[in-house]
Amino acid sequence: MSVSILCSLLGGLAFFLYGMWMMRDGLEEAAGERLSKILREMTASPLRGLFAGIVVTALLQSSSAMMVILIGLMSARLLTLGQTIWLILGANIGTTVTGQLLAFDIGPLASVLAFAGILLMLCAKEGLKYAGSIAGGLGLLFLGMEQMGAALLPMGQTTVFRQLLTKCDHPFAGILAGVVLTAVIQSSSAAVGILQTLAREGLITLGQSIYQVFGQNIGTCATAFLALLGTGGAAGRAGKDGRGAAGRKAAETPGKGVAVRVALLHLLVNLIGTVIFTVFCALLPAEQWIAALSPGNVPRQIANVHTLFNVGTMLALAPFGEKLAGWVEKAGVPAKGKH
Would residue 20 count as lying in a domain? Predict the structure, then answer.
């Protein structure tokens, strides 16, 4: 890989990640402390908690950001781990919205969105600033994908690259590749976006992507551990910046044991889901079924794998939600302070 290709690839990834941050930041600023209030009110029943997890995570475009909010609420004793399981299952579904959006090919509209968003961010009115941040972030997401695609296209013609991709047909190799990629770039949405970019350039097939998507769901849990357990992690930053009651509570309370419990529960959910779907794909013609949903559109097929994995995992684990939370309560690190 030449230096110019590497720089172009990293630049595209930077656009993508910064676009996600802009969208999330605009939504957080617009919603403010209402997010925490909504989550508290929506956990009265498992179904409402599941719905809240889907909606809030779809808006935040980040399951890790959702984990930070959950830690803040648990540290303040406003949620129990039994209530959190439904929000986590919903958050896993909500984070697939990004992949579904990226499956659209909006072409030149991406540049218009980014430009219009930047102009709105220059306005004095707060509402327009937040709208600009959301629109500009969405535009940068697509521009980042375009740049990564342009960088990957020449590299994709090399024999070494193609041989590496063919190895991802094996379940364990694909899962490991997905875990490593997501842990490195710290975003499952970005990892799915990279697969979609490769598919759009004709460099990867659905069969080479399926198990990587499964691994990416595990890899995003590693991201949550890094963000939630570090003293300079996302919870601390949220509190320092003063954005939202959950972030401030997470920074004010020790909460390390709470962070471990939430992260362990998130990891357990995705590990079980990966085992279920790996066995499912090994025994049944899952690839053909998924391809039939969106014939000829591999980026959409990859997005569908991500969505079906998380919806299927939710349906499989929903009857055992309280038991899963109970196991983590027994096995997790004892929380200090308020727990």
Answer: yes
- d(Cα 8, Cα 150) in Å, to the nearest integer? 8
What pTM was estimated for this model as a whole? 0.74
For residue 337, tell me if it sits in a domain: no
| pLDDT tens by residue, 169-204 | 789 989 998 888 887 776 778 788 888 888 888 888
Query: Is-contact 174 131, C-beta < 8 A?
Result: no
* Whole-number Å distance between alpha carbons of 140 and 147: 10
Contact 151, 12 (CB under 8 A): yes
Name the residue range of residue 66's domain: 3-331
Question: How many domains does one find in the chain?
Answer: 1
Q: Which two tokens stand for residue 115?
A: 């430009």
The whole-angstrom separation of Cα 237 and Cα 243 is: 9
Measured between alpha carbons, how far is residue 102 from residues 191, 200, 269, 328 in Å? 12, 11, 25, 35
Q: Look at the chain and count its residues.
A: 339
